[in-house]
Amino acid sequence: MLKMLEPYILTFIPIFVAVDAIGNIPLFISLTEAATKKQKRKIITESVTTATVVAILFMFVGKWVLRFIGITIPDFQIAGGVLLFVISVRLLLPGASKSVLSNGHDKDIGVFPLGTPLITGPAVLTTTLMMLDSFGIMPTFVSLSVNMLIMWITLAKADFIIRLVGISGTRALSKIMYILLAAIGVMMVRRGILGCIG
DSSP character for 35? Predict the structure, then answer.
């Protein structure tokens, strides 16, 4: 029995680390600070759906597509990092956090940056391809699906964290997370560049 579960356990752990469900909670809180409960539910659904679809599609056609059009994982890292840096700078500007959801971005924030590249980014795409090569389609698919379910649950419970730290604490946390978001963008660009020259 344990031998049968071994491939699933060995694929679940790396994907869990790559998805980083716990680490994405503060980012979700900061990016949806001005959203209503209805908007948050919509954003959660869109983000997890986008992340799952992108990861599954990439799992099945990723290597073929990348090889066909000449795009590498470092290319994904650089592009995603630049986009994250730009959006974090916008969010750090006075009043920007409130305007993000009032000027139409509420339709897109679940797709970018939450769905991709924060949940399903280069780390998840790379890890998924590695697990696929090592353990096959079924363990990788099941582990990916379970991790996305965990991601949905953690985002759905994010309001509890907001109540726990309070409004002032949430605003302070939001500003810190915007800076962290910018740093993540820079890190992704740096890794992409190192991947290109390495």
Answer: -
d(CA 43, CA 155): 10
Residue 13 lies in a domain: no
Q: Is residue 16 part of a domain?
A: no
Are 81 and 189 in contact by the 8 Å Cβ rule? The answer is yes
Q: CB–CB of 78/189 below 8 Å?
A: yes
Residue 51 neighbours by CB under 8 Å, 6+ apart: 19, 114, 115, 116, 119, 120, 124, 148, 151
Domain that holds residue 60: 37-197
Tell me if 162 sits within 8 A of 170, measured CB to CB.
yes
Instruction: Specify burial of residue 174 (Cβ count, 10 A radius: 0-12, 13-18, 19+).
Output: buried
Instruction: Kindly report the pTM of this predicted structure.
Output: 0.73
In a domain, 11, yes or no: no
> Is there a domain that residue 103 lies in?
yes
N- to C-terminal Cα separation, the chain? 42
Residues 15-58: tens digit of each pLDDT: 998 898 877 887 888 888 788 889 999 999 999 999 999 999 99
Q: How many domains does the chain have?
A: 1
Q: What is the largest CA-CA distance in the chain?
A: 57
Structural contact between residues 56 and 144, judged by C-beta atoms closer than 8 angstroms:
yes
